[in-house]
Amino acid sequence: MLARVASGELTPDEAAAWLDEVPVLNRDDIEPDVEREARTGQPEVIYGLGKTPTQVVAVARALLRADVRPILLTRATEEQVRAVREEIPEAVHHEQAGLIVIRSSDQEPSGRIAVVSAGTSDLPVAEEAALVAEAFGLRVDRIVDVGVAGIHRVLAQVPTLERADCVIVVAGMEGALPSVVAGLIPCPVVAVPTSVGYGASFGGLAALLGMLSSCVPGVVTVNVDNGLGAAMAAHRIVRR
Amino acid sequence: MLARVASGELTPDEAAAWLDEVPVLNRDDIEPDVEREARTGQPEVIYGLGKTPTQVVAVARALLRADVRPILLTRATEEQVRAVREEIPEAVHHEQAGLIVIRSSDQEPSGRIAVVSAGTSDLPVAEEAALVAEAFGLRVDRIVDVGVAGIHRVLAQVPTLERADCVIVVAGMEGALPSVVAGLIPCPVVAVPTSVGYGASFGGLAALLGMLSSCVPGVVTVNVDNGLGAAMAAHRIVRR
Amino acid sequence: MLARVASGELTPDEAAAWLDEVPVLNRDDIEPDVEREARTGQPEVIYGLGKTPTQVVAVARALLRADVRPILLTRATEEQVRAVREEIPEAVHHEQAGLIVIRSSDQEPSGRIAVVSAGTSDLPVAEEAALVAEAFGLRVDRIVDVGVAGIHRVLAQVPTLERADCVIVVAGMEGALPSVVAGLIPCPVVAVPTSVGYGASFGGLAALLGMLSSCVPGVVTVNVDNGLGAAMAAHRIVRR
Amino acid sequence: MLARVASGELTPDEAAAWLDEVPVLNRDDIEPDVEREARTGQPEVIYGLGKTPTQVVAVARALLRADVRPILLTRATEEQVRAVREEIPEAVHHEQAGLIVIRSSDQEPSGRIAVVSAGTSDLPVAEEAALVAEAFGLRVDRIVDVGVAGIHRVLAQVPTLERADCVIVVAGMEGALPSVVAGLIPCPVVAVPTSVGYGASFGGLAALLGMLSSCVPGVVTVNVDNGLGAAMAAHRIVRR
Amino acid sequence: MLARVASGELTPDEAAAWLDEVPVLNRDDIEPDVEREARTGQPEVIYGLGKTPTQVVAVARALLRADVRPILLTRATEEQVRAVREEIPEAVHHEQAGLIVIRSSDQEPSGRIAVVSAGTSDLPVAEEAALVAEAFGLRVDRIVDVGVAGIHRVLAQVPTLERADCVIVVAGMEGALPSVVAGLIPCPVVAVPTSVGYGASFGGLAALLGMLSSCVPGVVTVNVDNGLGAAMAAHRIVRR
Amino acid sequence: MLARVASGELTPDEAAAWLDEVPVLNRDDIEPDVEREARTGQPEVIYGLGKTPTQVVAVARALLRADVRPILLTRATEEQVRAVREEIPEAVHHEQAGLIVIRSSDQEPSGRIAVVSAGTSDLPVAEEAALVAEAFGLRVDRIVDVGVAGIHRVLAQVPTLERADCVIVVAGMEGALPSVVAGLIPCPVVAVPTSVGYGASFGGLAALLGMLSSCVPGVVTVNVDNGLGAAMAAHRIVRR
Amino acid sequence: MLARVASGELTPDEAAAWLDEVPVLNRDDIEPDVEREARTGQPEVIYGLGKTPTQVVAVARALLRADVRPILLTRATEEQVRAVREEIPEAVHHEQAGLIVIRSSDQEPSGRIAVVSAGTSDLPVAEEAALVAEAFGLRVDRIVDVGVAGIHRVLAQVPTLERADCVIVVAGMEGALPSVVAGLIPCPVVAVPTSVGYGASFGGLAALLGMLSSCVPGVVTVNVDNGLGAAMAAHRIVRR
Amino acid sequence: MLARVASGELTPDEAAAWLDEVPVLNRDDIEPDVEREARTGQPEVIYGLGKTPTQVVAVARALLRADVRPILLTRATEEQVRAVREEIPEAVHHEQAGLIVIRSSDQEPSGRIAVVSAGTSDLPVAEEAALVAEAFGLRVDRIVDVGVAGIHRVLAQVPTLERADCVIVVAGMEGALPSVVAGLIPCPVVAVPTSVGYGASFGGLAALLGMLSSCVPGVVTVNVDNGLGAAMAAHRIVRR
After folding, report:
1. Which of A205, A208, E36, G98 has its CA 20 to 30 A from that of C163?
2. Average pLDDT rounded to a whole number, residues H61-66
């Protein structure tokens, strides 16, 4: 810490702020789980909620130092975005998805997935899934606005869907789209419920329960609004 | 009461059993709401759960006396069925649907509906809907096994669906079928969630929430397993 | 896009903003389901929650171009309202209901419904139902402040209710009004629970469960606060 | 204990069974809260669920010895009923209500309540309320089958309701009746939700939430199927 | 309306605002249920949530005109308070309870209740109960800070509690206080759960369920934070 | 039908029973979705709950006739098992898993998965997953009794886990095992919550919510006790 | 296995039954986590639900062989009890608590706890806690029938409570007792909600939420009906 | 009060504000439960939510006057912090934990605990636990960032964990960490679920249910985000 102040990397005030802010952190503990990539092929992701900008930057720096890639910051607040961008210029911010990505430069696409979403309101979650998948080196076909109310529009996309190694289906409200898609194609289908809706949607619960109860066995589900998790599941599936 | 014992309609023992069983009933109170038919065009239905066979027969008799038709007994237990059949020979029992019907003899069909169900396990509820609708004088097209996992089978039924004045859609698990159907045809769609499923279906809750959250505005919903209610709604809709 | 910039319809900045905002949209995908009206007699509705003003305007324009009517925008935010009004002058904004309507000019009233609400706090939902019904060409009798605590006021409205082809009943708290109304008249009754209440109302859940559990079979229910859905159901019912 | 065996009150076998069954009970601990009547004017009630017949008889005897009256055993199982009747001949069993009552002989009626129930299936709970109230010396008017679907039947009972010092309203399904009744009369209204219903009734939850959310402030509620509690509340209210 | 503008009671602008705001209100419909006092001895209460200031003032005026007293406005927003105070100078605002009261001048105290609360955070609800009870002419003993964690403080209040005709117990968190109080005294106990707490309190659900499950039969419960309802129940109980 | 009776395939009594039992089935409708295998590579599965033995046999026969393999009957009742075994001798019944399997004879193993379960009580679900996976031609390593309470036993299994193309993790109670496993290996992890537990487990809800909330993004989840779905997901993943 | 058959420990039939029953168990995997005692000072407990008698006996034998003590089998079914008693004569069965215990012979009491229960219906859970604590070598004071409805009876037990190193409080319904007890004494208080109650108790949920929301910080809670867990927590606390 | 104004401790305005704000408080009632420390060894804690700054300061002063230590104010709002600091200079504010502490000067450390947290977002709750424990005189080892996704990091902390007299484990999301920790060490483990997470985490419910359902009997749980309660439980455990 002193060294970084000495070198001008941190001002004394910043250092003081740091010490004030994270009193429970041993200086060594800030090192995130940098070996996770070695074990699982996927690095630790920085989850923005409930972290201070200082904490977010510290974790990102530690991952950078350990040559982990991609570095992902999800559910980033405005202040976190500003802090990361200032400190790490190569960080790219995707506003709709609330996502910051630091990629390696030399990645080869290693597979192809489709990200299907039922309505325009589902786009932030769909984009989180698509961008994370791309950060992990997958090609992504984006298919939007194909809700079950207009079933012919789903059917029109079957050729694209059949080209995918894995399909992520993002839907709110009654969450019916994954069952329809999974009944049409043979590849793995990862369902993502969204919190789009009101009243009996109960913040995505209706879609979540519907997807878990799907009449097509083989559909798998992730948490509400969890585009990140769907993309990382797709990456595990496709890269084999 | 005494008169009925005197005339042999009741044995003294039956009368005693009666008095023992329904101590809180004034003899006049047993008269059900026989004027409901006059007000709403639909008579009071006898709901079997929690009633003794003696109570069920008493209400049925009172409705018979008031010339109400059809008389419907839903969720009938075996004992209730036996008691009603003994006392009222014209009562017809439908086992799969757990329903007893006493119809008028001279009804003219007054409209046409379709009852669509997603899976074989949904048949008891679908049959309740279909039989009640027929008891109210509607023609019924039954369409089975058209779950969203095989969407082409739904599409193949569009001509039949378009012929209907109202469509009842019965589905458990994720309850996605009503949205698909309502996106294909212009007539009213009444959705009936069923308790078919397990785990995250929570006894029909997943299907119920899904139907209430349908992405097709205009779908209306009744209670879980409530084929009766769907049929009576269809009757209100069609007979106008 | 370039053409529209060239023609001055969009400034280059607006075009850039657009591209920045909806990166996942192929330019063709923005076309909404314009054939839904042909299939179901009811066009796609624009649901405001979670959409940017740009997205809302884009969908509205696409529907306009396809000569779809009425065009409805529900749960519109202030920014969406401003954006739509600037771009589409014939759009009419109804503040209490949070609704924007673009109607066709030459519609003939095709039936009559009643919209009944239990309390003044239920008015925004009741108005959404009434305005949407009018946008679809129905005549609407509005009946307010007839909660079950003053049952004589419900009874006083029976003559008006009997004149309707369909009655929409809007109620929060215990949601008892639909059962009372449906016990008095023969036409279809569509129940709309509202989120009015607190504590054990659980944001409309009490009213919703009450309506689904109605002791009058034949009452049908839509989602909490879903005046739109009730009106579209009424339209499907009445226009036959 | 030895004394009771010596005196022939207990056989040695019964004593052994006792010792085997209630190893954790100090012999003194079995004395129930016999002073509760002195403090609250209402003795401890024996709640049958989860108790052995031996335990039930032991508590009843202890209350008898302490001259507490009435002694009430609710939710009695068949075995408990048999055990109590053998040991305590003055115990009266009410089958429909699942209740055993031991009254004092010389009670004067001290007030008048009405117990109103919405449907025949609600009778067991209504009877529990009525019988417990009578055991506490209240006169009870029983009014049955006055659900909100036939609102005129409620209105016809207003004269009887106005005569009461307190009204207990028992209703399942949507639980709307207490609001209607409380809007018609000035006396206290105690609402009892019942578990009658299925699906969205969730074992009485719909009725419970509805009653708690009543649009008539001043309605008070007890637990689902808790006729006992309603009657004891009425007794507290009326005897003042 | 024109008359009121002519007389200067309303400016033309106010009249226009009015017409704009409440288009669905027939001018006659604004009359609230002024006969409720005649039927139940308690006038309609104005519930502030979801109403505009204009609507609130209109209802208050209508009640004033009908000589109804007391007039109560609960859950009043700042804007509603301002609007009512400007228009009706005799209205008294109680900030902690979020309550406006317009009393009659000549009321005689007609009974005595106690309002007991478990913690300082429960005071707004307790005050709502106490002030409403006073508005209905009851004397109120306020007892605060007697949570079950310091049980001797409850016991120290028994003499005051025994003097009451009815006790209102207000408690959040585990909601245990009503059972303790009801086990000590013979008068009616009305339990009010509050939303004080976090996590497993689920906005008052823990306290609500606890009170409904009270081991003392005879405790009655109202909705979460419903001090108003408890006071009106107490008034019904005490005035007999 | 007549032809089959004529040929002796059905006795007249069986035919009559059939007609009595499935009145709503057109004879053609009984054909299940035999093309599903062509579309998705996985045939329709027969879900036993709520079906009569006759219905189950009819569907199995139709699938047999269409040369679909494997044929799976899950959650088979004793009566269904007896009926199927009598009619289709090549059906193999697995009692612990409640599963009937009819396999093709000439399947080549096409990949390898591991099925991990936390406790002995989870074995029925784990076996359903393992047997279904084997029916689809996968090799299965079964790993049992590796709950997180003895974390070293999980670690000891890492070499086996790393050999798998996909890992299914079956766990009840707190459902923590999938997160631990997914943090150790790179392949896809499908989590199956079980209903093992009591109280706060709420029939598997605790495990389900835990798995959906996993701190390892990329874990995917299926319904409670849904070993079948996990296996079919694994098959979709591995066969690519 | 063969060795055990050869030695007569198992008959060939038993061996076959075994192999048939636990096909997924490698013979080595049946070894339970015998090192848990070394790590935590508490051996693995056998949880009966969902296990076959054969599995239960196998685990018990493995623990016996490893000299683990005490061996506990909770929630034992009748068949499991019979099987264990036949095979392991030193096993003691406690019927009320549904518990089997195999203790070491030479244990010294190492501390003292109190187990307090609110009502007679809570005894099975209280006994499970007391017996398990005794199996771990603790002295146990049992205090029964001290519900909050009779608060003086709690106060009378303070001297006994103050003697304890840890108090376990078992209560159903509103679960208020732990807060009262913890407000009176300084030692650790472990709260055990029970499923005693009905309706709004929701199988122990009311008591559970109440205990978690206790107004006395420092109360800790275990799962519903989890007497076992409370005792093992007490053992961890006291033995230090 | 007058004395304090006279002495200048309060300005007349402050006194007026006081009287206005706490009208229901008898001046004596403001005395908090100062004897709680004598009974339980732990003083009453001031819970900030729902209290005005004036109320908070009043309670703190009363505790100061009674020589109670430590004085703790949890969930303090900014205004409360400002008010307390102005009036009581020795109060120390910990921002991350939302906690104010007034300690005695001469406390001796009396034991050692560890506070373990799974992720950086759990730090505010972990800090609340650690700071409260320190205020009660315990030494605290803080261990951070040891989620189950990187299980080796948990294992690396076993030596520190084994040194503790009690371990507090703070975790959100699936809440799996307490089971893992409790399976490794013999001392008491207090689990604290946090509201970190989204969707199926339901504000900490997933973690709470998971901890209550822990497969390691003996884990005890406190309310969501209740670091305070965990620390006070640890103090009760350790100080014996």
Report:
1. E36
2. 88
How would DSSP label each residue in E147-175?
Answer: -GGGHHHHHTTHHHHHT-SEEEEEE-TT-
On the question of pLDDT at F202 being above 70, the answer is yes
Q: Which of F33, F47, F75 sits opposite B150 (nearest CB)?
A: F33
Asked if C215 has any chain E CB less than 8 Å from its own CB, the reply is: no
pLDDT tens profile F26-65:
334 456 777 888 899 999 999 998 888 988 998 898 888 8
The reported pLDDT for the residue numbered A36 is: 86
Kindly give the residue spans of alpha helices, DSSP state H, lying in chain G. Answer: 2-6, 12-21, 36-40, 53-65, 78-87, 123-135, 151-155, 158-162, 177-182, 205-212, 227-238
More confident residue, G219 or B13: G219
- Rounded distance between C-alpha atoms, residue A231 and residue A228, angstroms: 5
Q: For residue range E38-86, what is the model confidence (pLDDT) as tens digits? A: 899 999 999 998 888 988 998 898 888 888 889 999 999 999 999 999 9
Q: Rounded CA gap, F146 and F142, in Å?
A: 11
Residue E30 has pLDDT above 60, yes or no: no
H and D touch per CB criterion (3+ pairs under 8 A): no
User: How far away is chain D from the Cα of G64, in angstroms, using its nearest Cα?
Assistant: 28
G164-190 per-residue burial string, b: 16 or more CB within 10 A, e: under 16? bbbbbbbbbbbbbbbbbbbbbbbbbbb
Taking the CA of residue F191 and the nearest CA in chain H, the distance in Å comes to: 13
Residue D192 sits at the chain E interface (C-beta within 8 Å): no
Check CB contact of G121 with chain D, cutoff 8 Å: yes
Whether F99 contacts chain A with CB within 8 A: no
Which H helix or E strand runs over C58? helix C53-65
Give the pLDDT confidence score for residue E35 in this predicted structure: 82
| G122, pLDDT greater than 70 | yes
Q: Decide: B and E in contact? Rule: 3+ Cβ pairs under 8 Å.
A: no
Contact criterion met (CB < 8 Å) for E184 and D40 = yes
Burial of C103 (0-12, 13-18, 19+ CB in 10 A): middle
Residue H187: list chain G partners with CB under 8 A: 236, 240
User: Are the beta carbons of A48 and A73 closer than 8 angstroms?
Assistant: yes
Tell me the pLDDT band of A46, cut-offs 50, 70 and 90: very high
β-strand partners of A143: A116
Q: pTM of the prediction?
A: 0.90
Tokens of F209: 């919510």
What does the pLDDT look like over B38-77, one tens digit per residue? Answer: 899 999 999 998 888 988 998 898 888 888 889 999 999 9
DSSP state of G139: E
Complex confidence, ipTM: 0.86
Tell me which chain H residues have a C-beta less than 8 angstroms from the C-beta of E121: 47, 49-51
B126 chain-F contacts, CB cut-off 8 A: 24
8 Å CB contact of G23 and F127 = yes
Do chains C and H touch, with touching meaning 3 or more CB–CB pairs less than 8 Å apart?
no
Q: Which two tokens stand for residue D11?
A: 């056989």
- Give the model's pLDDT for residue C26: 38
Q: Which residue of E has its CA nearest to H227?
A: E199
> F160 with H190: CB under 8 angstroms?
no
Give the closest of H36, H184, H230 to G39, CB-based.
Answer: H184
G201 in reach of chain E (CB within 8 A): yes
pLDDT for G2: 54
DSSP assignment, residue H107? P
F207 vs F177: CA distance, rounded Å: 10
Residue of A121, A215, A220, A222 for testing the chain B interface, max B β-carbons within 10 Å: A215
| Cβ partners under 8 Å of residue G112, min gap 6 | G138, G139, G140, G141, G163, G164, G165, G238
* Order of all β-strands in the sheet with H112-117: G139-143, G112-117, G166-171, G189-193, G220-221, H220-221, H189-193, H166-171, H112-117, H139-143
